[in-house]
Amino acid sequence: MSTVLVVEDESAIAELIAINLRHAGYDVTVAADAEAAQREVDRVLPDLVLLDWMLPGQSGLQLARRWRTEARTRELPLIMLTARADEADKINGLDAGADDYLTKPFSPKELLARIRAVLRRKAPEALDAAVEVAGLRLDPATRRVHRRVGDATLEVKIGPTEFRLLHFLMTHPERVHSRAQLLDRVWGDHVFIEERTVDVHVKRLREALAPVQCAALIETVRGAGYRLAQQLSTLAA
Length: 237
Ligand code: CA
Prior knowledge:
Low-confidence stretches: none
CATH superfamily of the largest domain: Response regulator
Largest sheet: 5 strands, parallel
CATH topology of the largest domain: Rossmann fold
Bound molecules: calcium ion
């Protein structure tokens, strides 16, 4: 389930957004100011943040700027909400690092469409689209992984954590992910889970992929983390 953090001080608006998002299947957390939002993000990195511009204390714009300077939150999908429709404000919002910008009032339908568009671009692992790498296909909707070899379809038996890990790696192939990044994006927790937990699940994932000859897709990058190769090398295959 995709997680959305709604940062909005007007409780009626926050509640309305939360109801609509929950109805659409999102897991929603609400924060009423920048400090509360920061605490939430420090705890668990959400898949996406809806950030109101006008907040008491630190503004949404300042918070967005700060998040963009920090490694952990630099890529955090972020949609700015505002009552200000000025072109200059919109440009300021996008300059501060927002991925999109919505002017109040907006319809729930438009909000959901924008969220999906930003997730598709920045966090495809949060969506239900099937992914395929090197003949290996993962379908979040059915929670199945299989590989087609000739006429046969070989099913991969895989645990829920390994499934999420594989989904994240398959939607971000060729990139090296540190253990801390994987904890953030797959487990949603970079503080209270030990980094060697990642190694344990990578080992299980390789074991799950071995029967379909895909274990070698998961590469260890010494001193850096893990990477999913776009294709199997001929040696490994
Ligand atoms: Ca506000």
